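I would love for you to help me understand the pair of lines that follows before we discuss the fold together.
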Amino acid sequence: MAKKQQNQPETQDDVLFEALQRSKKRRKRRIWITVVSIILVLAIGLTATVLYLRSRVRQEFASSDEEVSTYEASTGSISTTVSGYGTLQDVDLQELTVPANVEVEEIKVNANESIEEGDIVATIDSASVLSAMAEVQAELDAFDEQLAEAEDDAVSSGISAGVSGRVMEVYAEEEMLVSDCMYENGALMLLSTDGYLKAEIEAGALAEGDSIKAVLFDGSEVEAEVGSISGSTVEILVDDADAANGEEVTFCDAEGTELGKAALEIRNPLNITGYAGTVDSVNVSAGDKVSAGTKVLTLTDTDYSANYEAVLLQRQEKEEELLALLKLQHDGALLSPISGSVSSVADLDSETDEASEAAEQIVATLSPDESMSITISVDETDILSLALEQTVQISIDSIGEDIFRGYVSKIDKTASSSSGVTSYSAEILLEKTEQMLAGMSASAVIRIEGVDDAILIPVEALHQTSATSFVYTSYDEETQEFGGMVEVTTGLSNSSYVEITSGLSVGDVVYYTESSVGSFFGGRGGRGGFGGMGEGGMPSFGGGEMPDFSGGEMPDFGGGGMPDFSGGMPDFGGGGMPSGGGMPGGMRPGG
């Protein structure tokens, strides 16, 4: 019998298990190598980008067409302005009209031509003038009849109390217009009609009809009575002869315990009113008791009623119309009342509806040629800087390089918005010259603020970040880097210069490039795109200087070196790297 072998051959399952283990180790090793490779590629790319940016910055500063300029800070005058554009418009225009039913035969003037006072503007049909005069006179006769009827509607010479009561307030004074007193106070007098003043306090244990004490402002006591109770509050009544309207009092029970404080008011008030006349005398005083029909005020200037005055005003308007017709009849034409120019003329051939035929006809519009206006749009950031009478410099394209002077005559603070931009408008007046015509384009510049003896530097020399403004006071030609960064405080500025209020003195020299790296970094003055320039010339990324990768050092990824994978490689869910060069499953965005 053969001897049994001590070591049995490995089973097929063991062999398969060991193969799987070796495969898994190789797969993890490949994943680790892939991840490290990706991180190295990213680090190399970041380093290359930083070096490229540094190279670009140095190239920008070193380029031959961007020579470094110097400027010695000096004193001068600087001002800020508001500018705008508009068109010239005539002002103080006068419309020439003829009354209704008057036929205009021919207009003798044209737009934009000069005219003298007394020149014929239009010829008029005389028969239509006579017909219109007859109609106007008939209307005047009708108004006379209405005036005769209105004379009996005269306002009474006195104002009386309509009911009995006590006078609590007197607003009217001698020689005061009744209408003014009514406007200011809403009444001429104020009566208490039922004999009581009232106040409300917490009800507590009070019951309707209880008697309590009211301590007045001067310390005196008067009787008070508990009136109606509503919820947790109670109405306290005081005789209107014992206290004043609006007086604050303290209420106490019979033992002197305070129940509450409140201001008194009239329980049932009545306003005495009027609308016309002048107060001649006040016949009563506050506190007086009056009966119904008592004359409390005596008035003057009450001869005519408001209806009479309204009719009289209408009649006066018709009188003016009649006088205009008489002048047309006398002159035989419509004449110009002023010297100036014709702004516009009516179109006699245009069809008119019945409504327009019943109104006055505008024949021509005349300008006295004394002033013109320009309306400009003003940005919301500038509108509060404008003021009336500010001097304005005006240039008119059609006239040439002449500068005209005007002033701000009107500021319209009604906002107008377009595409998210809010603006306002201002009107400018200037003296009219012979060359100026309505509709010409004009530009206006308004000086809103100025400083003399200011320390000035070119705007190109100023660099700004979100937190500060600074200048460079040195330049190293060998390294082509700016230095000596000095923080400054700025004041006014314009398109060329900026005022320095602190940080520089007269004679200090600043260094700058007139064509800077602003086109590359996008910042004001060429050094603001990454939050400003660092001392060495590289842009600052908000926390100081750019890290130096030139020595081959890798960036710190939060732990002082490469990520630690000693605990094992992460499971990327796919058992290995996906085909096609894609990222592992666990590293995909959103995976």
Notes: The first strand starts at residue 68 and ends at 72. Confidence is low (pLDDT under 50) at residues 1-8, 516-591. The helical segments are 12-62, 126-150, 178-185, 306-331, 354-357, 518-521.
